[in-house]
Design a protein that fits this description.
Number of domains: 3
Strand order of the largest sheet: 1-5-6-9-8-7
Largest sheet: 6 strands, antiparallel, barrel
Number of helices: 11
CATH architecture of the largest domain: Beta Barrel
Structural class: alpha+beta
CATH topology of the largest domain: Thrombin, subunit H
Low-confidence stretches: 1-20, 47-60, 335-375, 492-503
């Protein structure tokens, strides 16, 4: 009799627990999140993100999901979802089909941005917060496993800050471990909390385990997404604002203050830029742009979509606790450094023998993937790719260290050389500890190098096709002397690097 009573009690408890879980979920908001999720199709050979499994060579359709982040059709997904697809087919919740346009992606994070052109505005997903997640928090996964579109399942957060190797050249950091199942077709879809807010991007599973899957924290995703948007918007307009650089790989850990990236505070402003002319100064906090609330960098980039030279951005900002309004007139896209620096240069003597016109470095930063922290995997990537250990030099420090230097250029800063690996890409330039690497100029673009992420950005694209030619010009400052050398664009190939060194 006692045993039967115990069983009865257990059944009641289980039923009560399931009822409690069900009542915790806001079904209407979960459905709204589904409206902001797309199905991505395309014939491709599988590039599996299953951990511990052999590479698949099976061609399949219904490859994954994506998340609408802007009403004009911009979608964030995993790059492995669209990699190798010639024709990206996108279907929305209302069964309308589109051809997706690739915009950009970041190889080190497997995050990509694509776009469709809808007839009517789409509903962007509601972005949540991944900085305060905890073990056993309830989560919902939505996506299209094995082509079963808009399937949902639930589970809990099993762990945080997981380091997950996916491929030889790809590792996820600070991942959310979940107990809900992720299958082929879920990748690129949203991880949701119980009120339908996106708290992560579903990305990887373990083939050899049950109830173990991983999602990229949404704060990380949105920071990377903002940089991908910037690569798009900077082709059409220029404003001169630079925000605080955030090491995205530290987001969600004790090393990063959430205010660093959830308050849109201006870090610096280019001289004679639209922002300076509008009266903005470093320290101002942007609140709205054209009546769009600005909660993070991604919102700012969305406000710049479709904008071009001459367009006016109406701004609301906070300065020392008081709100102000300003109108900023955008300029056309700017080069990242004064042009004309690729003339004949005697690097050994440090003399510029071909004059260049006076100009200001108008840098549109590369994706922000880190600072000089020794634990930053971006720094290790740069070390492995280029053989350089570098630390940032702010513009203020750069100006102090180069005061009186004879130069026609105005840089925004540089990176200081700490170590050069023997027999690496940059070793023939004979740079020394303390040299400041200020710029790399390609046949098509010029880059002021001011942080680790700038070199990481270039390392990801270090091919003649991506760099616009087979040689680049390297500008180094040593003891207030501007030195230049040419470098062949062939990764880790000592034999093909120019022998003209910085001596």
């Amino acid at each position: 009799m006692i045993r039967k009573a115990a069983i009865f009690t257990t059944i009641v408890f289980v039923l009560y627990t399931n009822t409690m879980y069900a009542s915790d979920v806001d079904r209407s908001k979960i459905k709204a999140a589904c409206l902001s999720t797309v199905l991505i199709n395309g014939d491709k050979v599988s590039t599996s993100t299953s951990l511990g499994s052999r590479d698949s060579t099976i061609s399949f359709n219904g490859v994954g999901a994506g998340v609408i982040v802007d009403s004009r059709g911009f979608i964030i997904t995993n790059y492995h979802v669209i990699e190798g697809i010639n024709r990206i087919q996108v279907k929305t919740y209302d069964h309308l089909e589109y051809i997706g346009q690739y915009i950009s992606h970041d190889p080190s994070t497997d995050i990509a941005l694509i776009k469709i052109t809808p007839a009517q505005p789409l509903a962007p997903i509601t972005i949540g917060d991944s900085s305060h997640l905890d073990i056993l928090d309830r989560i919902i996964v939505t996506g299209h496993p094995f082509g079963y579109d808009y399937s949902t399942n639930s589970g809990e957060i099993s762990g945080l800050y997981r380091e997950v190797p996916v491929k030889d050249n790809l590792k996820y950091y600070n991942m959310i471990q979940i107990s809900a199942g992720i299958n082929p077709g879920n990748s690129g879809g949203p991880l949701l909390n119980t009120i339908g807010e996106m708290i992560g991007l579903n990305s990887a599973l373990r083939q050899d385990a049950n109830q173990i899957a991983f999602a990229i924290p949404v704060d990380f995703v949105m920071e990377v997404g903002a940089d991908l948007f910037q690569q798009h918007t900077s082709r059409y307009c220029y404003h001169g604002i630079r925000f605080k650089d955030v090491d995205v790989n530290m987001i969600g850990t004790q090393h990063v203050n959430v205010d660093d990236y959830k308050i849109l505070a201006i870090d610096s402003i280019d001289h004679d830029s639209p922002a300076e002319k509008a009266g903005l100064i470093p320290g101002d906090i942007l609140l709205q742009a054209n009546d769009l609330n600005l909660d993070r960098k991604l919102d700012w980039q969305c406000a710049l979509i479709d904008k071009k030279e001459g367009d006016v951005i109406s701004l609301l900002f906070d300065r020392n606790g008081t709100q102000y309004k300003a109108n900023m007139v955008l300029q056309g896209p700017k080069s990242r450094i004064a042009r004309g620096a690729t003339g004949n240069t005697n690097l050994q003597s440090g003399r510029i023998v071909s004059p260049a016109s006076q100009n200001t470095v108008n840098r549109q930063p590369a994706p922000a993937f880190g600072t000089s922290r020794s634990e930053n995997p971006m720094a290790e990537f740069v070390w492995n790719a280029f053989g350089l250990r570098i630390t940032p030099v702010t513009q203020e420090e750069f100006l102090q260290r180069t005061e009186g230097m004879d130069s026609l250029y105005i840089f925004e800063g540089a990176v200081e050389i700490q170590e050069v690996k023997p027999d690496s890409v940059f070793s023939p330039l004979q740079m020394r500890k303390g040299d400041m690497l200020a710029a790399i100029i390609t046949p098509s673009e010029s880059w002021n190098i001011t942080r680790v992420s700038d070199m990481k950005y270039l390392a990801d694209r270090w091919t003649p096709e991506e760099m616009g030619g087979d040689k680049v010009q390297v500008i180094v400052v040593r003891n207030k002397v501007l030195l230049q050398a040419k470098l062949d664009v062939i990764r880790n190939s000592l034999a093909n690097v120019s022998r003209t060194g910085v001596k």
